[in-house]
Amino acid sequence: MKGLAPVFVVVTAMAAVPFLGVSNVTLNFLVVALMIALAGQGWNVLGGYGGQYSFGHAAFFGTGAYVTAVLQVRYGVNAWFAFGLGIAGGALVGAVVGGLTFRSGLRGSYFALVTLAFAEVLRISASVAPITGAGVGTLVKLDLHVAALQFGSRAAFYWMILTLVAMALIVTRLIERSRFGVWLVAVRENEDAATALGVNATAIKLAAMVISGAITAAAGCFYVQYFLFIDSGLAYGTWISIEALLTPIIGGVGTVFGPLLGALVVRGLGEGAQTVTGGNAPGLDLVVYGCALVLIIGFAPRGLIGWLAQWRHRRMRPAALAETGHD
Amino acid sequence: MTDPLLAVERVSRRFGGLLAVNGVSLTAPEGRITGLIGPNGAGKTTLFALISGFLKPSSGAIRYCGADVTGEPPHRLARQGIARTFQIAQPFTGLTVRENILVGAHLRHPGRDAAVIAADQVGRELGLESMLDRPADTLTVAGRKRLELAKALATKPKLLLLDEVLAGLNASEIRDMVPVIRAMCRHGITIMMIEHVMQAVMSLAEHVFVLAEGRIIAEGTPAQVAADPGVVEAYLGRGAAARLGGARAN
Fold first, then answer.
1. What is the CA angle B74-B75-B80, rounded to 5?
2. Of the partner residues B52, B95, B154, the one whose CB lies closest to the CB of residue A185
3. CB B190 within 8 A of CB B29
4. How far is A73 from chain B (nearest CA, A)?
5. What parts of chain A have a pLDDT lower than 70?
6. Which of A85, A149, A321, A326 has the fewest CB atoms within 10 Å, measured from its CB?
C-alpha cells in the first residue's frame, strides 16, 4: 500500500471534525462540499489523468441519483442495494457514451460538446418520462433507519460521504501507480506516441470513462439519500457538470487531492460571498466561481496544488544551489 | 536463406489523387540494419506509417514474422514487437524522462517495480541516466532523440523503425549515436532506418532501398546505390548524373 499514507492522514483528520462541536450549518456545508468533491474526483480520473475534458458529467451524477431514487420509490428496492445499482448505472452510461465517442475518434472540444449533448438529452428525457416523475420529480420517503441508508444526524451523513471520498481517493492513488494510470497519462500527453508504444488508447479512455462515471454517479446516489428529492434539473442540470469540472481544475487537475481541495475552496468562496451580502445577491457564488476560474487558468494552470508545489520548489531551489556551490 | 522478418509486398497508399506510396516491395532480413533513403516527399515516412499500422495500405500486403499483419492497429503491432520512432520526436512533455520510458516499459512489465527497473536500465543504456528525473521538455534536441529511442527500446522490439534519428544532430552527436544504433543491432534487434545523413547510412546499413516519388528506384549496398545514376537524378534532377559525369570527365 505504497503512497497511501497522505490519504489516510487527510481522511482521519477530516473524520475528527464532527467531534469539534461544529454547528449543523458547518456540517451541512462540509457534506455538500464533499459530495461535490466526489463528483469532481470522478471527473478528474477522465479529465485530469486522461485529458478528456467532459462538460457533461451530469449524465453520471443524474443517472446515479435517478437509479437510486426510482428503484427505492417505484420498485421497493433496498436503499443500499439501490445505491450500488446507481453506481453501476453511472458506469454503464460511461461505457455507452465512451464507446460511442471514443470509437468514432472524437477528441478535444468535440468530445466536450458531445458529452454536454448527452447530459442534455438525458435531462430533457427525464423531465418528460413518467418513470422519473417527469416535471414533478421523485420524492424518497423519509425513513431514518440505517437499513434505509438515512441518518438522523448530520455527522453520520458526513462520515458516509467522507468514506465515499476516501474510497475515491484510494482508487485514484492506485490508478496513479498502476500501468493503467501510466498509460492513461500517456494518452493525455500524446495519443499517437502512446499508441506507438503499444497502448490501446480507445480501450484505456473507455475504461477511464467507466471508472469516472461510477465515481460521479456515487455522488448522485448520495445526493438522493441526503436531500430525499430529485428532479431533472437537479440530476442532469449543467450546475453539476460545471461543479464537477471546476473543482479539479481549481484544486489541481490530475492530482489525487485536487478535487477535494478545489471543492472546499470553491464552496468556501461561494458560501463566503453569500454571507458577506447577507444572501441578498443570488447567483453571486457563480460570479465568484467565474473569477476563481479565470485567476487559476491565468496564473496557476496546474491548479492550487500545482501552484503550491511550484512555490515550495522555488523556496527549495536557493538552498539546493547553495549546496552544489560548496562542492 | 531464412524468411525476412519484415516483407512489404506491392504496397500502395493513395491520399485522394496523390499516390504517396506506389507498389513498394522491400524486405528487412532479421538481425540486420536496412536503410531507406530518398529525396524529401518520396513517401518514406508514409511507408513507415503503413508498416507500423498508423495508416492502412490502399492495396498490397505487409508480412511480419511470416504472418500477414496488413491493417492491424499500431498498438497490436507494438505488442508483436514492431516499434517506431517519430521523425519529430514525440516526448510526453508533461512527464519526466523516466516516466516517458516507463510508458514503453509497461508493455512487457505490468507491475510498477519491474517496469521502473526496466525503464532505468534502458535509460542507462542510452546515456540518459543523469536526466531520468528531468522533465522531458527540458531536453536538448539530442536528448529528445535519445529519449525517442529509449521509449521504443523499452517495448523490447524485434523490429525497430527509426525515422531520421540523426537529423538535427551535430557531427559529434552523430558520432555518439552511431555506436548506440549498432549496439541495438548487435543485441538482436532488426533495424530499418530512414536517414538523410548519408555518411551514417553508409557506415551502418548493409542494404539500402531508395524511394523516390513513391516507388523503389534502386536497392543494393550503400556504395552501389550511391553510384546509381538513377539515384543521383532523383536527388539532383534529370540529367544531373550526366552533367556530373561530364564534369568529372573534364
1. 95
2. B95
3. yes
4. 45
5. 1-2, 316-327
6. A326
Query: What CATH number has the domain bearing residue B207?
Result: 3.40.50.300
Residue A231 contacts residue A281 (beta carbons within 8 Å):
no
**What is the distance, to the nearest Å, from the Cα of residue B77 to the centroid of all Cα atoms in its chain?**
15
Q: Hey, is the C-beta of B161 within 8 angstroms of any chain A C-beta?
A: no
Partners of A139 in the beta sheet? A229
Residues above pLDDT 70, as percent of chain A? 96
Domain count, chain B: 1
- Whether B223 maps to a domain, the answer reads yes
**Alpha helices, H only, B65-192:** 74-79, 97-105, 112-125, 141-154, 171-186
List pLDDT tens digits, range B41-98. 899 999 999 999 999 999 999 999 999 999 999 999 999 999 999 999 999 998 999 9
What's the one-letter identity of residue A24?
N
Long-range contacts (CB closer than 8 Å, 24 or more residues apart) made by A158-163:
A158/A17, A158/A18, A158/A27, A158/A30, A158/A31, A158/A34, A159/A15, A159/A18, A160/A222, A160/A225, A161/A31, A161/A34, A161/A35, A161/A38, A161/A222, A161/A226, A162/A11, A162/A14, A162/A15, A162/A34
Residue B1 lies in a domain: no
State the residue range of the domain holding A184. Answer: 5-326
Q: Of how many residues is chain A composed?
A: 327
Q: Is residue B166 part of a domain?
A: yes
Domain extent, residue B137, equals 6-249
- The band of B248, judged by pLDDT with boundaries at 50, 70 and 90, is low
Which domain CATH number covers A9? Answer: 1.10.3470
Q: Is B187 on the interface with A (CB under 8 A)?
A: no
pLDDT per residue over B102-134, tens digit each? 999 999 999 999 999 999 999 999 999 999 999
**A193 contacts in chain B (CB < 8 Å):** 86, 90-92, 151
Q: What is the ipTM of this complex?
A: 0.90
Residues of B in contact with A185 (CB under 8 A): 92, 94-95, 99
Residues B56 and B206: beta-carbon distance below 8 Å:
no
B149: closest CA of chain A, how far (Å): 11
Amino acid A323: pLDDT: 44
Residues from chain B contacting residue A201 (CB–CB below 8 Å) = 75
Q: Please answer whether residues A123 and A234 qualify as being in contact, where contact means their C-beta atoms are separated by less than 8 angstroms.
A: no
B241: helix, coil or strand?
Answer: helix
Greatest alpha-carbon pair distance for chain A in Å reads 76
Q: What is the total count of domains within chain A?
A: 1
pTM for this entry: 0.91
Chain A residues interacting with chain B (CB cutoff of 8 angstroms): 177-179, 182-183, 185-186, 188-190, 192-201
CB of B154 within 8 Å of any CB in chain A?
yes
pLDDT digits (tens, 9 = 90+) for A99-109: 999 988 888 89
Cβ of A183 and B106 within 8 Å?
A: yes
For residue B162, being part of any structural domain is answered with yes
The distance of Cα A39 from the centroid of its chain, to the nearest Å, equals 2
